[in-house]
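Review this:
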Amino acid sequence: MSKNDMLAAIVRALVGVPQKRLGVVLDTVNKIGSADGEIWRTRFAEVLREGVKSVVLLPEDPLDTLKGVKPATLASKAPLDTLIRVDRSIRPVYPDWVKTVTHPELECAGPAEYNLQTEVEQWLHDDQKNGSVEGNTIYRNLRNGNTLATCLNLQDGFAIQAKGIEVFRELFGGKSLVLWGSVLLGPKECGGLLVPYLYGRYGDSGQFGYSPSVPKGGYVVIDWTWLFYFYGSDKPALRFSK
């Protein structure tokens, strides 16, 4: 079928669509035509193949007899499991290039169990809130303010990573979460401090960065970054809130 024939068929089909549903049709067309159009086309196609599940449609006319018809319901979303458990008796495994653990007193510090959603906060240096600031400045602020011990460390990073991408997506989206409790001295030839951070890769094979429309799936990554880099508002520290 040619494009003109397809457009003619679409127009004929739209004639029979009730006016109150045309707005939804327009939104759908705009999404399919956007930069993320292929993602939206795939998801709409899946819905059409599977059909609408766990939904009971009410008559369009509210005066119709509703006897025996249950209200429309959608399948409830399973609650997130945000409980984190950490074995503080085992030192974390560091990369081979690590020269010195700068704060060995913090490498196994922190609670053995906590709720990632309610007992952990995302903290920003004042200069991060409307711009960016060098990591060394953030580190000095935390160290001199005696708040470095409240920051999550590499042990926590591994435990959060093990929770999976859906928990990370729901709580943190596209942010990179810095674990200031595990600042390390890097390779001798580089001569600088590094800190671990967490971020998400989205899609079935982790091929996407974060966006609200990205497909489900993916994984959580732990990586390392230099303290002489600049950190913006998308790189908060994770700290225990109590």
Observations:
- Confidence is low (pLDDT under 50) at residues 52-59.
- DSSP finds six helices and eleven strands in the chain.
- The radius of gyration is 25 Å.
